[in-house]
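If you are new to this repository, start here. Below is one unmodified record pulled from the training split, so you can see the exact layout before writing a loader.
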Amino acid sequence: MEQQLQALRALASRAENRRTETGIPRVAMVQGEIPEHRLAALYDPMINLILTGSKTMTVGDRTLHYDPATYFVMSVDLPAIGSVHPAPTGEPYLAISLTLAPTIVAALIRDLPVEARGTLAGSGFSVAPVDGELLDAWIRMLRLMDRPNEIAALAPAYEREILFRVLQGPLGWMLRDIASPDTALARVSVAIHWLRQNFAEPMTVAALAEMATLSVSAFHRHFKAVTALSPLQYQKRVRLLHARSRLLSGQGSATSIAFDVGYESPNQFSREYARLFGLPPSRDLAQATKERR
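And here is the target side for that same chain:
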């Protein structure tokens, strides 16, 4: 398996110190030290494979650590705070990812034998060790970077193979839940999608539960199981992540941004911002500006 990892590291070594598109639909890579504020984000559902170094992701009260030769799956949109670290021997962090398309996952599952599904929602993110068959599929996929004329014909097949290998592994249930409209996760995802698009709007848990066609108590329980956050906490995290992104890119003052993302009190915004990111908005902006120099 080490030879396969080395082959993938060589292919992904052209990645930059940010999300780097490969020219292959939904496939990206990243390398090196990444500023913490870029890793605090609302993440799309994805499969992410760590090749070198390690990564820590925190969502709500859950923190997972990802080492080389492990992959993690996010099955819903999650507001997370992360940090990446080089290998003990000094090689920079290196990872590749596949953004999940539920329609593609569903089409693949329709071609597979039906498996029993649970009714309780599980976590929306988890980690597992990679195996040789999954690595082989990734190698074939990344080799297409040097064969762009073959991407249209072969990338869909390699994507299905990657998804198939994950489906056969310990996190396969997460992909099945994504593509199955009758699962609790799929129902919670409806509310998550609304919150992502309307984070600045007032909301009630009862209204979200109605969207998910669940009772309020069942909705709250499933939502917390999937996201490690309550619906209110999720909305606050999304608001604060959007606020920080706008603040650090110079899109307004802290006060104006606070109102724009749905806060009625700038003081409350400043307190919750500092609680999440460690510094109040003005000092966080000064620190980020200093790091960019």
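Two things worth knowing about this chain: Residues 19 and 30 are 5 Å apart (CA to CA). DSSP finds 13 helices and ten strands in the chain.
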